[in-house]
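Tokens in:
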């Protein structure tokens, strides 16, 4: 007997499946979806069985080395492969990214208990019986305590032998769910050791009822999966857009749910574009859980002072500032920009072109880590610069001038939440706010959180406000924006957003392709992008092709990059463009940063 195997390697789409002979000792162990070890040149690698066959056209096919003890559900495997084809991704690339690195060796592993009484989750007051869903459903919440209440009810409603997966965007959110359910020993992530990952695979294969994990938990060997719960489904962390392969986790979760016969449940303060489209098409049921949402207040940011008068009056009354207070900004460093006092030119890194944010004399770019940047204007030669922008260090400095001394800092690299009375933090603090004793939250510059990745929308700003309103804590937002974003409801916002996306021909109303052009030369990368744009406009005149962005090309891993966006009329255009292998470009179909 012979098998078709997808090796776990990064291969072109034209090299997907390879034939191998099955030794007689493994004839009864190898099935569709089985994980097997195969020889590959001078190495031993793992792969997954796609099909069984009696004959092969390959001359002298190699034999399998051994069969692993785990296997994927064949229907789940087919669904994931179909999704890879829609994303124009090699199946091996997507499967290799979703499957954790395992040893498939029998070894014992003890998972530590994740109980932390210091961070107990408050139980929400019952506001009515929560009906258990039987189909794809989105739950809109305006009280984060209701989220954990819903999760407890879902676990309690499981019958004997049924399983549930909580798909979390990050480790902090997963730990909060673990503490809320008080029965799960560990979180399944891609950062686990091989022995720990193998322990989880055995536990799920043996029928463990509840699993909490990141996207790599999607392909665990579930026996009777009842629900896939996407926690904080509108979070950007459910979109793998910052590393290859780039894809949205939600369609893959839906494919796995269909293959397993499970229901896909989205839980968040407002639906993403993916779930909203399902609600419009009546594939997804919409439910709203109400609770005691916090009072969010927006004040106008003045021009003559960095704080509005209501905030200044509140700070003067020191006796009212009991408990811990968080000041949230979206930038690290000393400032957001450095402007020449003579000609007004911004100081940027000569290598990657991004603004310099350090106040030290020996400046190091935070993006490309290029050191010893000379603090001198390239246009007029002046060395006199003025710093602008609110950042972590700048807000702390200004608070000290107001007489506050007990100040701590928190960002994505911090290991522990500070115990100071005032904490200046980046947006990395949002998951932490549920399990800390924070009494109030200030956003001194709301515009910093409204910078989109590619195309201008209000999605990021609205999602942030909706999330802050669900924290049950007083929140004061200082902004020059309209207060309408505070009072608007998610359904109203999504209706308006969908009209904008329809006018711009953005997803989910049509296909979109992003072409990333890479080159080691800064000038050549833009020339290459413009030549591709001209070539495709002549060949596909009916398609919409956006001009390459004229901002400074980004620098990463030794190459400069810029983007060309294509809105194709039909799939024939996509096939025509992506079937050719270019040495200097990468394709992203419906890139998540444009979709959400």
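Residues out:
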């Amino acid at each position: 007997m012979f098998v078709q195997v997808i090796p776990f390697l990064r291969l072109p789409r034209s090299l997907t499946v390879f034939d191998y002979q099955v030794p007689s000792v493994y004839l009864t162990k190898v099935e569709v979806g089985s994980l097997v070890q195969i020889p590959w040149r001078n190495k031993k690698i793992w792969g997954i069985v796609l099909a069984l066959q009696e004959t092969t056209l390959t001359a002298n096919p190699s034999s399998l080395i051994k069969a692993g003890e785990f296997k994927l559900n064949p229907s789940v495997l087919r669904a994931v492969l179909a999704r890879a084809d829609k994303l124009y991704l090699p199946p091996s690339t997507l499967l290799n990214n979703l499957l954790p690195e395992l040893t498939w060796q029998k070894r014992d592993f003890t998972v530590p208990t994740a109980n932390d009484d210091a961070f107990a989750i408050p139980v929400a007051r019952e506001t009515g019986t929560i009906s258990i869903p039987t189909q794809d459903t989105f739950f809109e919440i305006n009280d984060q305590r209701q989220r954990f209440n819903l999760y407890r009810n879902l676990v309690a409603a499981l019958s004997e032998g049924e399983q549930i997966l909580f798909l979390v965007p990050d480790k902090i959110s997963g730990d909060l769910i673990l503490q809320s359910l008080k029965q799960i020993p560990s979180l399944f992530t891609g950062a686990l050791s091989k022995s720990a990952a193998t322990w989880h695979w055995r536990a799920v294969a043996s029928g463990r009822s509840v699993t909490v994990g990141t996207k790599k938990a999607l392909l665990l060997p579930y026996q009777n999966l009842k629900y896939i719960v996407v926690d904080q489904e509108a979070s950007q962390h459910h979109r793998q857009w910052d590393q290859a392969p780039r894809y949205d986790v939600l369609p893959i979760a839906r494919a796995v749910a269909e293959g397993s016969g499970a229901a896909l449940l989205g839980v968040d303060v407002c639906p993403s574009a993916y779930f909203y489209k399902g609600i419009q098409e009546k594939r997804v049921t919409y439910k709203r859980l109400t609770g005691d949402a916090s009072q969010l207040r927006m004040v106008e940011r003045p021009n003559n002072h960095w704080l509005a008068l209501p905030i200044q009056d509140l700070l003067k009354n020191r006796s009212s500032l009991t408990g811990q207070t968080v000041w949230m900004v979206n930038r690290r460093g000393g400032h957001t920009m450095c402007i020449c006092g003579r000609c007004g030119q911004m100081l940027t890194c000569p290598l990657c072109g991004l603004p310099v944010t350090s106040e030290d004399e020996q400046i190091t770019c935070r993006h490309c880590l290029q050191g010893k940047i000379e603090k001198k204007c390239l246009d007029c030669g002046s060395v006199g610069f003025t710093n602008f922008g609110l950042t972590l260090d700048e807000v702390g400095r200004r608070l000290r001038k107001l007489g506050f001394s007990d100040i701590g800092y928190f960002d994505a690299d911090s290991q522990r939440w500070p115990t100071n009375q005032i904490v200046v933090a980046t947006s990395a603090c949002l998951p932490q706010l549920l399990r800390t004793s924070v009494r109030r939250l200030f956003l001194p510059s709301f515009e910093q959180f409204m910078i989109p990745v590619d195309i201008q929308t209000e999605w990021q700003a609205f999602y942030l406000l909706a999330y802050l309103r669900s924290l049950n804590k007083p929140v004061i937002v200082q902004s020059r924006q309209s207060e309408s974003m505070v009072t608007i409801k998610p359904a109203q916002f999504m209706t308006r957003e969908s009209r904008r996306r329809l006018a711009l021909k953005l997803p989910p109303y049509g296909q979109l392709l992003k072409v990333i052009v890479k080159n080691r030369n800064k000038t050549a990368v833009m020339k290459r992008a413009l030549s591709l744009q001209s070539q495709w406009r002549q060949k596909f005149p009916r398609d919409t092709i956006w001009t390459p962005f004229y901002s400074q090309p980004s620098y990463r891993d030794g190459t400069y990059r810029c983007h060309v966006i294509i809105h194709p009329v039909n799939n024939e255009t996509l096939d025509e463009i992506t079937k050719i292998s270019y040495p200097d470009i990468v394709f992203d179909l419906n890139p998540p940063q444009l979709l959400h």
